[in-house]
Amino acid sequence: MPMRLSHNRAVFVMVAVALMWSTAGVVTRQLESARSFEITFWRALFTALSLLVILPFFQGPAVFRKVAQGGRAFWISGVCWSVMFTAFMVALTLTSVAIVLVTMAIGPLLTALVARIFIGHRVPLRTWVAIVVAGSGIVYMYAAQLAQASVLGTLVTLCVPLAGAVNWTLTQHSHAQGHDVDLIPAVLVGAIISALATLPLAIPFSATSHDLALLAYLGLGQLAVPCVLSVMCARVLKAPEIALLALLEVVFGILLAWLGAGEVPAPSVLTGGALVIGALVVNELIGWRLRQ
Predict the structure, then answer these.
(1) Among residues 27, 35, 25, 20, which one has the least CA distance to residue 96?
(2) Exposed/middle/buried for residue 129 (C-beta within 10 Å: 0-12, 13-18, 19+)
(3) How many CB atoms sit inside 10 A of residue 204's CB?
(4) What is the 3-state secondary structure (H, E, C) of 153-168?
(5) Within 10 Å of residue 221's Cβ, how many Cβ atoms?
(6) Average pLDDT, integer, range 55-65
(7) What is the SS3 assignment for 47?
(8) What b-and-e string marks burial along 131-153, b requiring 16 or more CB atoms within 10 Å of the CB?
């Protein structure tokens, strides 16, 4: 039986979730031999193994029936999760932690655009302004360090918020049609797909026992556990609260990479990141006030 959270406890849990999510960058920088697709494979495998133990505890054996009986939307959601898992870890091997996290932070704005294009959701003026400001921050961040920036790393990173936008839009549309998509079993499917897709690219393995211990943590403590906890928090907190608290991942992640891996963010990244985060915070706060 999952525990029942009060509002205050849910806030504290979401802060802890953001902290756990944010450890991916600094932990990846501590790996000795594992690289690129091998990192993605082991993390996805350990995530899948962790969820195979955790999900029956929280949702009972019925969780496996949900996977077996999942419809088209469920499986598309699983594919989206697999893209997010794979692109995120590969991006961390191609560019800095700060650039990956700041670029991923535009997810809520991309979701608004995708929802507008594919299911006709109206985008408020404040969100259009936020999209322009955040886009300017991203352009400035990359333009100021064009010589050092990885174009491939940028494109791979953008796959994460884009897949997330498709996933959330699909989930919302399915709910409106009376067909709810359970995201946690879909996370399990995504982890399995990611592991299978990257296995051929991960061979030959070079990870040491030290690497495997860190990658096991990424699968369990950085992804599986916080994903389950975030869903529990989503039952208590409003969507704007979740969105704002999740932005702490960017702050925590940059700070941890700075302190734990000596990865000092460039001034352009801090300035561009401030524009992105500021646009998101203002947009969510205004939306929250209007809903009140």
Answers:
(1) 25
(2) middle
(3) 5
(4) HHHHHHHHHHHHHHHH
(5) 15
(6) 80
(7) helix
(8) bebbeebbebbbebbeeebbeeb
Distance CA 48, CA 189 (A): 8
Q: Are 193 and 131 in contact (CB under 8 A)?
A: no
Tokens standing for residue 262 = 């000596």
**Model confidence pLDDT, tens digit, residues 88-109:** 999 988 888 888 888 888 888 7
Give mean pLDDT, residues 73-81.
Answer: 89
Cis ω for the linkage preceding 200 (within 30 of 0)? no
Helix boundaries (H) for 60-71: 62-68
Which of 59, 67, 77 has the alpha carbon at shortest distance from 174? Answer: 77
CB 165 within 8 A of CB 114: yes
195-243: per-residue pLDDT in tens? 999 999 999 999 999 999 999 999 999 999 998 888 788 778 776 677 7
Report which listed range, 68-72, 101-105, 120-124, is most confident.
101-105
Taking the C-alpha atoms of residue 275 and residue 138, their distance in angstroms, rounded to an integer, is 8
Phi first, then psi, for residue 96 (nearest 5°) are -75, 155
Which tokens belong to 188?
Answer: 């399990």
- Taking the model in full, what pTM does it have? 0.83
For residue 31, give the nearest of 171, 202, 213, 247 by alpha carbon: 213
Any idea how long the chain is? Answer: 292
Cα three-residue angle 38-231-229, rounded to 5 degrees: 70
Question: How many CB atoms within 10 Å of residue 114?
Answer: 20
Containing 214, the helix (H) or strand (E) segment is: helix 209-217
Q: Please state, for a pLDDT cut of 90, what percent of the chain lies above it.
A: 32
Could you give the C-alpha distances from 12 to 9, 137, 174, 189, 228, in angstroms and in order? 5, 29, 30, 28, 15
Tell me which amino acid residue 131 is.
Answer: I
For residues 246 and 18, is the Cβ–Cβ distance under 8 A?
A: yes
What mean pLDDT do residues 133-144 have?
76
